[in-house]
TrEMBL record:
Organism: Marinobacter nanhaiticus D15-8W
Protein name: Solitary outer membrane autotransporter-like beta-barrel domain-containing protein
Solitary outer membrane autotransporter-like beta-barrel domain boundaries: 37-360
Pfam families in alphabetical order: Omp_AT
Highest taxon of the lineage: Bacteria
Length: 362
């Protein structure tokens, strides 16, 4: 929790500094899940750099969050969201509440992954290529609050804001199988992503500040190139019934904006994730001569950078059950397909989802 405390301290210091620039004319902006910043009613030219840095930090937060949420080894956000606590009469932010499930419904992700690897070439080594297309969207209500007593600003209207990130990833690496059970992998790759924000100014306070933040924090777009380094360590059992495996995957991301413009000057996304997971498989009778199996999974996910503040934690858990069908005999592009139900525990996105599975570890 020390990481989260340092982030909170840094953000509080930023808020105090910005407030000192603009005094009581400043506005407080609260955006659930993605943005938390302070903006001015009017920005003196000398302080415009501070606003640019603050806006850059918010855009970094969205880009970093999109990278983590579209990494299928990190989190699952399916098409159908549900509150697992409602089945047992439990309303808890840790396991999922009506509020956290509502947040999940405002976040949409789409990932189309592809993975190709060679046969073992020499002394346990093989190569692989990974690619994927991704889309991330978050819708938010933005509340502007002037720095006056609450009773003087109780009739405020909220803005609507929609942030999107879409792009692609291409990378490659090597696998090394150093025993019957153990395998290690190392890979590098690059993400080319496009960030876009569409914002409607519905509040009289936000309309007053629109000239200073439009094209910078809101109604802005940035293209970024983000490199990543990934390491994996996997232990796989050879049990015929109920085969299982455990894995530990660390991924580091760092990049920079490659587009020019008002919003791109301060954007340098940097984050990381560490996923420790366990899987148990149970083979089922063939259906129309197609192999299929159940998969049970448990994961602990640690995250850094702005993502820890976005998810309101630096670690959380995910538990799931999936049903996979082997499709490798019909196409070189599709190894397997299926469906799963998973539960996220301990983050701002706690709750359950039903997801489509595609090209998962068999």
């Amino acid at each position: 929790m020390a990481t989260q405390e340092r982030m909170e301290t840094r953000n509080e210091a930023t808020d105090r500094a910005l407030s000192s620039f603009w005094g009581r004319a400043a506005l407080r902006v609260q955006v659930p899940l993605i943005v938390f910043t302070t903006l001015p009613m009017a920005v003196p030219a000398a302080e415009s750099g501070a606003v640019s840095r603050s806006a850059g930090q918010q855009i970094e937060s969205v880009i970093e969050t999109s990278l983590i949420l579209t990494d299928k080894d990190a989190v699952s956000l399916g098409a159908l969201q549900f509150d697992p606590g409602s089945f047992v009469g439990l309303d808890s932010e840790q396991f999922g509440s009506s509020e956290s499930v509502n947040r999940r419904r405002k976040v949409r992700t789409f990932v189309l992954p592809w993975h190709w690897k060679t046969e073992e070439v020499e002394q346990g080594f093989s190569k692989y290529i990974r690619a994927r297309l991704m889309y991330f969207q978050a819708e938010q209500d933005v509340v502007y609050r002037p720095q006056t007593p609450p009773e003087q600003s109780s009739n405020e209207a909220s803005d609507t804001s929609k942030s999107r990130v879409y792009g692609g990833f291409l990378g490659g690496g090597v696998n090394y199988k150093f025993s019957e059970h153990w395998k290690a992998s190392f890979g590098v790759g690059a993400h080319l992503v496009r960030y876009q924000n569409d914002h409607d100014y519905n509040s009289i306070y936000s309309q007053a500040a629109a000239a200073d933040v439009d094209g910078l924090l809101f109604n802005s777009s940035v293209t970024a190139l983000v490199g990543s380094v990934r390491t994996d360590l996997t232990y796989k059992s050879q049990a015929e019934s109920f085969p299982w495996h455990v894995s530990s995957t660390y991924t580091y991301y760092a990049g920079d904006a490659v587009s020019s413009g008002r919003a791109a000057d301060e954007v340098e996304p940097e984050t990381w994730s560490w996923v420790n997971a366990a899987y148990i498989h149970a083979d089922l009778p063939q259906i129309s001569d197609v192999d299929n199996r159940l998969r049970f999974s448990a994961k602990r996910i640690d995250v850094g950078g702005e993502v820890a503040r976005t998810l309101a934690t630096d670690n959380y858990y995910e538990f799931g059950i999936g049903w996979l069908f082997d499709m490798s005999g019909g196409s070189s592009w599709v190894d397997n397909i299926g469906a799963s139900a998973s539960v996220n525990v301990g983050s701002a996105l706690s709750g359950g989802s039903v997801s489509i599975l595609y090209n998962e570890e068999w």
